[in-house]
Write a structure and sequence with these properties.
The protein is α+β, with helices and mostly antiparallel strands. Helices cover 48% and strands 11% of the residues.
């Protein structure tokens, strides 16, 4: 018999709709029942592609006796962290404040007023029974102690970020390229200089770390820092974390070698990695980087795009109850499929008779092989047909579960990635996919002239947008304008930015709240400050305001970005590894941003040539005839000639006619920013 989750749209919640646990979705009904019956709340948080979430469901939440215990002693809530990141962030921080390493599934115990007092992540079934029993008994027998703990955790959660981290707006603020060097040197100590990535396992791609390195090169001209970037990009592209046959990156690698992935594929990772590899390609012209871009976009189009043009959230790691089964091959399967080419293929992709894929928890061999290029720099073009054969085999397998909800913020990251990939490669199909997605976002997740919805599925948009929704879309549409010169994208970005300034700003703390002023009140109202796998919404918004402010000559946008950067800069200096997107923004203040204006009938062609070259610190405006934005005023095209203006701080040089001449002006005014 289905529980209350059967009426939800989230794939993750629907996965639990037939559990014997009497699950509630997050909402007033569950909270009111807890108050009425004076029962503690058990909030279990996860997401559709989470492997260990599925494991805990099979072991505990589908177990009749365990479910009966949970139902008797608690009001149980199941929450999709991707739908309600605001709730997830509160209770993840609470668990970490308890001295417990965070992760998902996240299981948190709350008082009826929603204040947390205990929690953890994955629990094996026997231990879960003990935890549930002990917590329920403590609620009955030691209530005052739990109340005291909950009060302390609530006080911690409600503390303002500026007070907690000593953020202040200085009387004056200025940066130079030299100010960036200690930041990079401190960040470099975290790099794995032998295997790429950060010196730890598991290994996450962390795109914002490597984007900062590229931005640092643009600001300082110091190309000696690039070796760990190329090592990381090449090792990821060769590793099992990248789907060699089908394209797209898995969420992370469980080992230090990039070989053994957690096989779930997330939209947010792949969007950001498109941007990273695209920026790298403008500097290297490395065919491996181009292969990753083209193959990953093909994967997005094939497996992650809705008929309406939105991008789905994720693909599960598991199929048929087994992690990675969809993506791996036994030696026998490879021989049967590839015939006399199998041996050469297996050597090239590291496949062995016993299998190179081992279970994360036990280390036991599965007998299956992850495809990973055995040697950096190995040419694999000769195996293209073999990989196509293996893709056909996949077509007959049971596919991993698809989380087909469409999240606004993640769509913004993918849209920006597509724009950057198009900018680097000039592939019009990439631009067409980006424009289709932009049209979808305006039509389906815009709730009024400027407000946004967070989630869309099956024709229904719901949950008022969070700061990262606005930040990601503002940024993506600002960059979509810069490759199309269609002002409607820029004006839409401006409307979202204005909405954020009105509805999210905290004048007291000097940061943006994560939630709208009109959002559902929770026990704490948080602000995202630290960059993680996904950059913090405050850093994304600050970067978007900086670029948009230059293009539209909006001093209030630029000033807000500068104020945010000034407040956070001392923390960036202390902890750059946790603030890499902020560090990238700092490069925009260390050297002035080039404002490049292209006017004339060949403006788009000139833009393509300009963007194919590395110069990260620029914004580009253009028109074939005339435009309405400030950078284009007085620069109408009156001839067949296309002119390029290079401007800094509203001061423009005389126009030039070639991209080489434009780059000369850009580098003269801003040495070290490009080539």
């Amino acid at each position: 018999m289905p529980n209350r989750l059967a009426h939800e749209t989230s794939p993750y919640l629907l996965q639990h709709a037939h559990n014997p646990v009497d699950w509630y979705p997050w909402g007033p009904e569950a909270l009111q029942r807890a108050r009425d019956e004076d029962k503690p709340l058990l909030v279990s948080i996860g997401y559709s592609a989470c492997h260990w979430c599925h494991v805990m469901e099979r072991e505990s939440f589908e177990h009749e006796a365990i479910a009966e215990l949970m139902n008797e002693r608690f009001v149980c809530i199941k929450l999709d962290r991707e739908e309600r990141p605001d709730v997830d962030a509160i209770y993840m921080e609470a668990v970490q404040a308890m001295g417990i390493r965070g992760g998902w599934p996240l299981n948190v115990f709350l008082l009826p007023d929603a204040r947390p007092f205990y929690g953890g992540t994955y629990f094996p079934p026997q231990r879960w029974v003990r935890v549930v029993t002990d917590v329920a008994n403590a609620y009955q027998e030691h209530r005052s102690q739990l109340e005291e703990s909950a009060a302390g955790f609530a006080e911690h959660l409600q503390a303002g970020e500026s007070a907690r981290f000593g953020l202040e707006t200085p009387d004056s603020f200025g940066l130079s390229p030299d100010d960036l060097k200690p930041v990079f040197q401190k960040l470099k100590t975290t790099f794995d200089l032998q295997k790429g990535g950060l010196a730890r396992a598991p290994k996450f791609p962390m795109p914002s770390v490597w984007r900062f390195c590229l931005d640092y090169v643009g600001a300082t001209g110091d190309e000696s820092v690039l070796e760990p970037v190329w090592l990381t990009l090449d090792r990821m592209a060769a590793g099992g974390i990248y789907d060699q046959a089908g394209g797209g990156f898995a969420r992370y690698s469980t080992d230090a070698e990039w070989l053994l992935p957690h096989f779930e594929k997330m939209a947010y990772d792949n969007g950001q990695l498109l941007s990273l590899y695209a920026e790298a390609y403008t500097l290297t012209q490395n065919p491996t980087h181009a292969r990753v871009l083209r193959q990953s976009v093909t994967w997005l189009r094939r497996e992650m795009t809705s008929p309406e043009g939105g991008f789905y959230s994720a693909l599960d790691a598991d199929s048929e109850g087994e992690e990675g089964k969809f993506y791996t091959y036994t030696a026998a399967e490879l021989r049967e499929a590839l015939g006399d080419r199998a041996e050469a293929f297996m050597r090239a992709f590291g496949a062995t008779e016993e299998g190179n894929f081992r279970e994360e928890a036990t280390g036991h061999s599965t007998g299956r092989n992850i495809l990973a290029i055995s040697e950096l720099g190995l040419g694999i073009s000769e195996f293209k047909q073999d990989l196509e054969v293996l893709m056909k085999i996949r077509g007959n397998r049971v596919r991993p579960g698809l989380d087909d909800k469409i999240l606004t913020s993640w769509n913004g990251l993918v849209l920006r990635g597509l724009v950057d990939a198009y900018r680097a490669l000039g592939d019009e199909d990439m631009l067409d996919l980006a424009k289709k997605n932009a049209a979808f976002l305006v039509e389906k997740v815009t709730r009024d002239e400027a407000g946004l919805w967070h989630s869309y599925k099956a024709g229904t948009a719901k949950i008022e947008g969070f700061l990262d929704d606005y930040a990601a879309l503002t940024d993506a549409f600002t960059h979509l304008y810069q490759v199309t010169f269609e002002e409607r994208y820029l004006r839409q970005a401006e409307r979202w930015a204005d909405y954020v300034l009105t509805h999210f700003w905290d004048e007291t703390d000097g940061l943006f709240f994560y939630t709208d002023h009109a959002a559902e009140p929770l026990i704490a109202r948080k602000k995202e400050l630290f960059d993680n796998v996904i950059p913090a919404s405050n850093s994304m918004m600050a970067r978007a305001l900086h670029d948009l402010g230059l293009l539209l000559d909006r001093g209030d946008f630029r000033e807000k970005a500068a104020d945010l950067m000034a407040r956070v800069w001392p923390l960036v200096q202390k902890e750059p590894g946790f603030l890499t997107n902020w560090a990238s923004l700092a490069t925009r203040f260390a050297r002035p941003t080039a404002e490049v204006v292209i006017v004339g009938p060949q403006a788009l062609e000139v833009r393509r040539t300009l963007d194919a070259r590395f110069f990260p610190n620029k914004v580009v405006a253009g028109t074939l005839k005339s435009g309405t934005i400030p950078l284009l005023e007085g620069r109408e095209s009156t001839s067949d000639e296309t002119l390029i203006y290079v401007c800094y701080a509203k001061t423009c040089q005389l126009p030039v006619r070639t991209v080489d001449e434009a780059f000369a002006l850009m580098n003269d005014a801003n040495p070290g920013s490009g080539r």
